[in-house]
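User: My collaborator and I are trying to settle a disagreement about how two of our proteins should look. Neither of us wants to argue from intuition anymore, so we agreed to look at predicted structures for both before our next call. Could you fold the first one, then the second, and keep them clearly separated?

Assistant: That sounds like a sensible way to settle it. I'll keep them separate. The first protein:
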Amino acid sequence: MAIWQIDPNHSEVTFKVKHLVISTVSGKFTSFEGTVDAEQADFSDAKISFSADIDSITTGNEQRDGHLKSADFFDAVGHPKLTFVSNKIVCKSGNDFAVTGDLTIRGITKPVNLDVEFGGTQGDFYGNTVAGFELNGKINRQEFGLTWSAVTEAGGIVVSDDVKLHMNVELHKK
């Protein structure tokens, strides 16, 4: 069984959510870690374990970041990490996979589905074996206890319930 570790210097964990239903706000986690255990070269038997530090969330706006870290949203003090553990991987075709796993946010665990594109493996300048992946998914924030909501004077929703997830991940074989 090969063990692979996320290289945070060549990976990103981002999300997008609609603001006022007309524009999109993007954010990311800057501190995260993860491992993948796999025996097959195409990772079809992979076991994925991932976590991100809630306090590392950034959207480019300090006031908004503080609100997201507060009890209104992620509650970074009470729930300092979000986690994901895979439980099923299915090859859709070629290098495209469907990954199902358990995502835990604010102590609430729900199954999520991710579309994964395997970019392949290659050696780097330092003799490491490296693998690349792109992952996409969508969750409903309400299901994870991120229930803060507000409505504008005109009746518009301030923050959408749907959150798009996107990760570019580079793994290094240990």
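The second protein, kept apart from the first:
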Amino acid sequence: MSRVNGKTVIVTGGARGMGAAFARRLIAEGASVVITDVLVDEGKAVAAELGARAMFLPLDVTDETAWATVVAETERAFGPVSGLVNNAGIVHVDPIERLAEADYRKVIDVNQVGVFLGMKAVVPSMRTAGNGSIVNISSIGGIIAFSNILGYVASKWAVRGMTKAAAQEFGADGIRVNSVHPGVVATEMTSESERSNSMVHDQPLPRAATPDELANVVLFLISDESSFCTGSEFVADGGYTTK
């Protein structure tokens, strides 16, 4: 298959879960993929599994200097960046009155500031490529709200707005920016969550999504099949937000 043949894509948080599924799908459809994560051993294992068109680079998404290194190394290995999937994210659970400022700021730094730094880092390379597609992984928590995860909700609403602002700025360069809003996805982060498991029973499709189902959405947005899509939300939640 060759839906993204010749494209060079950076995937953050690519060592496991949805990020690893995104990398596998993009490789299968012809892209070269740079997998980044703070989980070095797991990230290297995924890259080794995927072969010559995959490479792992360690990345703390809150570190602007590290972002510059990743983009430079990507260009050296595979050429200009034509796709970015801002997938790295964390969650911290606590009611607001017990939520420590440091824990709130950590979630904002990874989920929101990391997306900003990623977009900022890749745009010059995408201009060199002649176009590009940025996919920011938000959440249904960026469309509706949930209690006890204030930082996560705040960051995912921010990603939704940042996506629209960036789409306006980068459109003239042929760079598209869209956000993806998953509901519950069966990953390491959700498998032990009683709250996540209970959510799916009350939605039209009463199950969690698989990472591969989200990978299909990301593939569409990175590919030229979505050439007229920018600044939009793509919701994959089994109908949860229809309630």
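Some points you might bring to the call about the second protein. The chain has a mean pLDDT of 96. DSSP finds seven helices and seven strands in the chain.
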